[in-house]
Amino acid sequence: MATQLAWIGLGNMGRGMCKNLVEKGNLDKPLIIFNRTQKRAIDLKSQLPPGKCMVASNVEEAVSKADLIFTCLGDDAAIIQTITSTTTIDVRGKLFIDCSTVHPETTNMLAENFQSRGAEMVACPVFGAPPMAERGQLICVLAGPASAVEKVKPYCKGVMGRENIEFYNQPPGKATLLKIIGNTFVLNMVEALSEGHTLAEKTGLGNNSLHQLIETMFPGPYTAYSSRLIEGDYYKRDEPLFGVDLARKDARHALSLAKAVGTRMKDVEVADGHLADVQEHMGSTGDIAGIYGAVRQEAGLKFHN
């Protein structure tokens, strides 16, 4: 019998991932999509080929009709609330795939919940920005029972992503642990770039000269974020690429993980302090790249360049 897929959560990552599932996932049935703000689901449906997806009116409908259910939500509270709303549904035999970036303890708790109800779960957080989600170039990190991971892999590399990292027969929380630690590299990169560009401006070297070095020595994410800083993209977007609230959530998780094992992430502590300044200046529309504005302010420059 044909497998029915559902997708819950259409943020700036989820939309691109859904697009690639529909276009490259060889789905036998229309993808069921749900978002708390239904207009976002309706808008996405209108952008996809006719007959390739259908909008569910609530979480319960999406879960009850599907065999494989993907979730991609902003934080721990959102995914816990969403899964809690399915407690009256018979989920025996279903497979849940959570792509959310949450604390490993949250991931393992959800997996235990599903297992007690006769379902399985694979954690599948992803590395990459929204443009990479749009192009199907994410890195997918999968953890869970080997047989369940195998069921998810056909929708990852070559569809939503360019590569997989697999933790076979490992607790699902291993995937989100890697994701949280990996995201600290992004946070530290933006902090380093922000400090470097601020120093380049203050000393008279100039941002373009520093950017030329970054392009030559550090192509890829460093160059992309450097461009965002010097072009002012860090404050001009209507929708952030990596929202400040989510970045601080990841920082809190990383700091709590470090504290639990008796170590510290001092770079993350500094960057999180700057993210707090971004929140104060821009509210929830702030972006992780807004760290540049916070560092500029500390140096006596304007937040906006």
Sequence-ordered SSE layout with sheet pairings:
Blueprint: E1 5-8, H1 14-24, E2 31-34, H2 38-47, E3 53-55, H3 59-65, E4 68-71, H4 76-84, E5 95-98, H5 104-116, E6 120-123, E7 126-127, H6 130-135, E8 138-144, H7 146-152, E9 161-168, H8 173-203, H9 207-217, H10 221-230, H11 233-236, H12 244-260, H13 266-282, H14 291-298
Parallel strand pairs: 1-2, 1-4, 2-3, 4-5, 5-6, 8-9
Antiparallel strand pairs: 7-8
Could you characterize what this model shows?
α5 runs antiparallel to α8. With 305 residues, the chain is α/β, with parallel strands linked by helices. The chain is built from 14 helices and 9 strands. It starts with a strand and ends in a 7-residue tail after the last helix.
List its salient traits.
single chain; 13% strand; 305 residues; 6-stranded parallel beta sheet; 3-stranded mixed beta sheet; alpha/beta
User: Averaging pLDDT over every residue, what do you get?
Assistant: 97
The helical percent reads 40-55%
Q: What global shape is seen? A: globular
Number of strands: 9
Uncertain runs are none
Distance between the termini: 57 Å
The radius of gyration computed from the alpha-carbon positions, rounded to a whole number of angstroms, is: 20 Å
Order of helices and strands: EHEHEHEHEHEEHEHEHHHHHHH
Tell me the number of helical segments per DSSP (H or I, 4 or more residues long). 14
Strand residue percentage: 5-15%
Secondary-structure class: alpha/beta
Side by side, the strands of the main sheet go 3-2-1-4-5-6
Question: Describe the biggest sheet?
Answer: 6 strands, parallel
